[in-house]
Batch of 4 targets.
Target 1
Amino acid sequence: MYDYLIVGAGFAGSVLAERLASEGNKVLILDKRNHIGGNAFDYYDEAGILIHKYGPHIFHTNSKEVYEYLSRFTQWRHYQHRVLASLDGQYFPIPINLTTINHMYGMTLDSSQLEAFFASKAEAKNILETSEDVVVNSIGRELYEKFFKNYTRKQWDLDPSELNASVTARVPTRTNKDDRYFTDTYQSMPLHGYTKMFETMLNHPNITIMLGTDYRDAAPEIQFKKMVFTGPVDEYFNYRFGKLPYRSIEFRFETHDQETFQQTGTINYPNDYSFTRITEFKYLSGQKHHKTSIVYEFPTADGDPYYPIPRPDNMALYRQYEELAKSQRNVYFVGRLATYKYYNMDQVVAQALATYKKIKKEASENTRVLESANGSLGRN
């Protein structure tokens, strides 16, 4: 008998497994893949270079709680990610900043002048409903078409005017020279990789791991009291209301017999080619090697579910599943797939930690109720 059956060994499942096991609970984790770590899984390729099997995962957070929690299981390598966009045979820093604009237009603006420049280009929108609205309202249509429109179409197979405002709002515009892709307080990579971090996290006598196992096949044979489900919520309910739409990615890995392939960690290709970006892993890991490995990303409609598609009709469909999920006793739905949200890694960790606190509070309240009931029986 297990106290908890956890479906999925990614961030959500692993964090909850560790927290619950640390309180004396017997935990079983199932994952249909043959490895732990979910989409953050990394490994050494044939050339001996540490690569990310499911595309680049760069850790960043403003949450001290999340950072300090993960620090129990890994040392960190300080790393601040930088991205360039390839446009018209030149490279420009993104998010768009002071350097981007001065380089693109051959100007020497300062920050206050750049604010006025953006204001002169912007098309004011009273309501920011779509991803197009967000960008055009901020920096105008010319820069929107150069940097955002076609990249978004490739990524989502939808025009930005068809997507929720949250998509392009993830990439801000700056009026200074800060060329870091993220500005979070904590920006680091696990020193020995994500997989090593997960191995340390799950190394507990109360945790049992079964890989290459579909929970639908195994669950009927397993005795457990409660479940944590981190897979697709529509799958859990056998697609009762239909499938929730996702975008997936095909990855093409290459190893080159040279020390570096490109001038920064990631280069985006907004307008050219069918791939969206190329990432070179040695920038992320800091590994020294005479060869280098890269990955091309080709967005696709088919494949593993990676990105929930943020459109009103999709959210309406998810709400139906959310109501079903709320009605389930002793089942907790956690993570990007289980809650159909476009979460970053730190947000999934935060959600898992919050769920653990909720579980602990519920257990404490149940104990008080039982003690109160037993006390009443003793007096009668």
Target 2
Amino acid sequence: MGRSRPDERGPPSPGPAAPPAPPAPPPRCARALALLGALLAAAAAAAAARAFARYTEAQAAARQESALKALGTEGLFLFSSLDTDRDLYLSPEEFGPLAEKLTGSTPTASYEEEELPPDPSEETLTIEARFQPLLPESMTKSKDGFLGVSRLALSGLRNWTTAASPRAQFAARHFRPFLPPRGQAELGEPWWVIPSELNVFTGYLSNNRFYPPPPKGKEVIIHRLLSMFHPRPFVKTRFAPQGAVACVTAVSDFYYTVMFRIHAEFQLSEPPDFPFWFSPGQFTGHIVLSKDATHVRDFRLFVPNHRSLNVDMEWLYGASENSNMEVDIGYIPQMELEATGPSVPSVIMDEDGNMIDSRLPSGEPLQFVFEEIRWQQELSWEEAARRLEVAMYPFKKVTYLPFTEAFDQAKAKNKLVHSILLWGALDDQSC
């Protein structure tokens, strides 16, 4: 047999390249070290975060202790009531209300001048305040000497016997916030004039405050109206539901009747006294105004007085707002604002554009004749009130019945009875 010999035609042509071999997996100990390094880094970051948090808390505690030594308990309490952002520094805006109180001065440009400038060509109306103070005997807990209650604690309440401004003039256009939003003028459909910023999950605002924040936008007219009762109204309450809700109850070619419900409260004390909060169950009422808000035919706002208790009161009797708080409920017979008549032009012009004297030669004022409003759609007061109530308290979608009626309904429908016993009303701010 002969030996084979290499092919004399040359080396064979190369085939397709083989794929690279996968890298060898790292040793198990290397993977363990990498994981341990990551865990140690995470632990170090967490420890650093905790250390920074403790450092921040220690700094805050040191500043708090320093402030307590410098101001004393009562002084720190007053300082905290002004320090709204809780940074332990008073900005000029935070210090402003106290500076005005101490100096007796007023700001050069108030929110009224900025947002409600006068216009001599528009219609104006006069609103009167009617006020009867809270009946002391209606307070079930807070008699003198009982539960540590003193005359000093209730001094702001006892001294509030008359309305702060018995009469005030407003321009018709200032009531524009009560008009329904564009496209939402459906009869009985509620909308929020001032939305609530609180709910059952967000908690409540601090009790340790004396001066309300400057109102903005639609809050301005409500703040001006409530200021006729007392100089320190808070347009938004400390507890939910806050704000104001409204709905259209009647419609004509040129006018709306709008019913509204407002949750607001008052601070009756000023430093050095402790805060005293006065929270009516609700303000309700109606306004009849033209669709362009140039004319107001009627206006009324009041605290309902058909229940035996209609005001909640809460006050501090020490520097801690968590442990030194007392609560009671009472009855106020009358807290009401009402227009003396429809809005009328401030300046009267004849057909040639000349100004006319607003008084007759006899001295009597000119009498205006207003056209009769022909309503095309109307909703009852009771139904409108129910819808506003549901907007504020969604649980009212369930029908609540008087005690005796509930058992008749339960028997007829073969259902159980859920009975609720309260020291006030569940569906307003007096409870």
Target 3
Amino acid sequence: MAEEAQGAEFSPIENKVMESLEDVIDPELGIDMVNLGLIYDINVDDAGKCLVTMTLTTMGCPLGNLLHDQITQAVESVEGIDACDINLVWEPAWSMDRMSRFAKVALGIHG
């Protein structure tokens, strides 16, 4: 279901959630989750419940719990959001190709 929604245009509140997630920084890389390409989809229902479909750079990421808490806090800080669920997926696998140009430049990755 989340894969079907990927690529769909976000609603205004979903855009606000994505903006808020730009404040969640991966402590190891110093880049936000959005620019790293770790956020795959955002879905907000009419009741104000947000589902964030995302991945991590590695399956054994030791910061998973910290990032979960920071993402939940960022999402729930958006007006109109009453709850946040995180759908952590491993398919499609994350790769550096998912990073924004900003993230690549900040990390010194060229090409």
Target 4
Amino acid sequence: MAALAILTCRPNSHPFQERHISLTEPIKVGRSVARARPAVNNGIFDCKVLSRNHALLWYENGQFYLQDTKSSNGTFVNNQRLCKGGEESTARDIFSGDLIQFGVDVMENNRRGDKITHGCIISTITLYHPDGREAKPTPFLNTPNLPGITIQSQDLYQLAQYLQEALHREKMLEQKLLTLQQLVHNTQEASESGWQALIDEDKLLSRLEVLENQLHIYSKNHSEDTVRQECVTLQEEKLQYETTAKESLRRVLQEKLDAVTKLSDLERSLSNSEEECGHVKEMCEHAQNELHQLAEKYQEQLAAEKELKDKLQEAEQKLTEETDKAEQEKHELTEKLEQMLQQEQSLSTKVKPGSLTSL
């Protein structure tokens, strides 16, 4: 079996299908071209911000490596760029659970003057050795002598990633809210312009009605030739007014259509923003809960350590007391032994040799 790398799309990434890449040889990561198209088993992405030869991913001597191959927009591991743009980086060892980013978000203007953002590739990588073991990072905090649990770097790093993503989404929401406010302002201006055009149209119609009344009065008070000439003049003015009114009405309808379109886009953007806000809120709450749990576990381990220290101090105190007691008993026994020796000597001096022979 060969080593395996799985790239999972992050919510803030340019969308792509999850990749399962077999690392039998160094795998190229880059932008799709005519001869290299995206697939579930390669590192080619349909993303404009990637270079054709963006990076290399391979497995060697039990370790996974990633290298930037002179890309324009850079390669990032856990939000750290490997090298400057246009330079080739050194090989960077990576682990399962790392956040891998290829390129950066790029904003450009389209033909209509609107700004379009081209997203980059952001993924969570999962790595497996040829024997099926996951290539996890080494824990940096371990307390084997204390009861409780072990806090690993992956947990804290995942928590930091959640917080960074929440901050990023908060900034994106602020930008979208500013855009929404600008769209609402433009829609209000377009509506005011439409109402003004309708008012002008009403004025033109009223003017036409007044002219028709004047024409009727002139037909009674003037000769037929004069009336005919006046009619021709009025017809020309009427045609001119009607043309102006139709043009104004066309502009009003076009502005109204643009306003309706912008309002629809605004509603969709607002719906997407609310969904993203809800998602960010859930992630923030989840991150806060995890942080609270880690803090509680840390306090529990501190309490256990304090309890062990108290027990150790109590045992040392008991050992000191027992040692003092043993020394005192030894001293007393020594004194008794000396007394018994003195008594034995005194008895020996009192006993005479003649008394022993007589016996």
